[in-house]
Amino acid sequence: MNEELIHELAIQSGFKKYEKDNGLYSPYIEGEPLNDELQEFAENIIKECVKVCTEGQQEEHVMGLMYSKKIKRHFGVE
Predict the structure, then answer these.
(1) SS3 for 77?
(2) Is the pLDDT confidence value at 29 over 80?
């Protein structure tokens, strides 16, 4: 897993850093609705997956576009 990328996406999504060990604060609380930061984090990961699908050779690009649309539709991401 690309921990640096996941860390970067978490920060972009509004996760907060702990002061002492540079860890990330999780905005998820069990039993509560998803908050904005966690929802944005999930969307950022999905968008990163879509970006990977759409990069590459022309022939691969067409298939990637098809898969990226399926991924977006599956997760309800615009």
Answers:
(1) coil
(2) no
Which structural domain, as residue segments, surrounds residue 50? 3-75
Does this model's pTM top 0.90? My answer is no
Residue type, 16: K
Q: Is 17 helix (H, G, I), strand (E, B) or coil?
A: strand
Q: How far apart are CA 62 and CA 2, in angstroms?
A: 26
Structural domain total, the chain: 1
Mean pLDDT score across all residues of the chain? 77
Q: Which helix (DSSP H) or strand (DSSP E) does residue 22 occupy?
A: none
Tokens of 60: 């691969």
Is the sign of the CA dihedral 48, 78, 61, 53 positive or negative? positive
CA 19 to chain centre: 24
CB 40, CB 13: distance < 8 Å: yes
